[in-house]
Amino acid sequence: MIDKILPATVRWSESFTHRTDIGLFPEEQAAVARAVDKRRNEFTTVRACAREALAGIGHPPVPLVPGERGAPGWPAGVVGSMTHCAGYYAAVVARETDVATVGIDAEPHAALPEGVLEAIARPEDLTVLATLPSSAGVAFDRVLFSAKESVYKAWFPVARTFLDFQQATVALAADGTFTARVLVPGPDLLGRPLTGFSGRWIVDGGIVATAITVERDA
Ligand SMILES: CC(C)(COP(=O)(O)OP(=O)(O)OC[C@H]1O[C@@H](n2cnc3c(N)ncnc32)[C@H](O)[C@@H]1OP(=O)(O)O)[C@@H](O)C(=O)NCCC(=O)NCCS
């Protein structure tokens, strides 16, 4: 599913069930030593996905340990992103020579719980949301939430600063794309200040997925 919103420079792997077919590296085991089963399962499953994605760019398995603010430490020369939610797990990676940053997120396809949209959306986000067709059967509020999480996951590895939901505006489009504008100063990326991202979204099999890929040659 996630491949439908990724360019060919990105390798991916996804799973719709828990995977227990890999062993964790000692550093990874230490990271979830005191975690509950659910956390250990999602951590392991998404790392199984990440190893397959890494193999797709010819990279051997390596420990992927949560680092600063939870961002996974990818091997030198590799960019990547991981996501997990009930019934869906995915990892994407690319060579840094092809892709400057990438962020993915997945969510159950259901309307956001009461009060969440108000907390995560800016007025501009809501204005665009109101123009989207309710007849499409898409929980656009959830897509917005997921898009903002993808923004953060693409932003953090290059900016190394937290980004609040109110510090970026996301304009969703019904055609499966979105445009994000970051409202705080960003680092230089590809020779110019990073001011936002273009992304894509998809709803399939009860899951919303969003992805941002900043390709060097785009
Ligand atoms: C970090 C965050 C985005 C994760 O999203 P989530 O829906 O809770 O969880 P997901 O399953 O989709 O993603 C979890 C994975 O994200 C990755 N991740 C965590 N922190 C990250 C960070 N700072 N940068 C990049 N990736 C990160 C990790 O790989 C993690 O999985 P792991 O712990 O097994 O390695 C979320 O918890 C958060 O802190 N959001 C607040 C910031 C934000 O979204 N701002 C919006 C700006 S517009």
TrEMBL record:
Residues 27-94 form the 4'-phosphopantetheinyl transferase N-terminal domain. Its cofactor is Mg(2+). It holds the Pfam family 4PPT_N. Mg(2+) binds at residues 105-107. GO terms for cellular component: enterobactin synthetase complex; plasma membrane. Gene3D superfamilies: 4'-phosphopantetheinyl transferase domain. Residues 102-183 form the 4'-phosphopantetheinyl transferase domain. Keywords: Magnesium, Metal-binding, Transferase. CoA binds at residues 39, 47, 83-84, 105, 149, 153, 163. One of its GO terms (molecular function) is magnesium ion binding. InterPro entries: 4-PPantetheinyl_Trfase_dom, 4-PPantetheinyl_Trfase_dom_sf, 4PPT_N, Enbac_synth_compD-like. GO terms for biological process: enterobactin biosynthetic process. This is 4'-phosphopantetheinyl transferase.
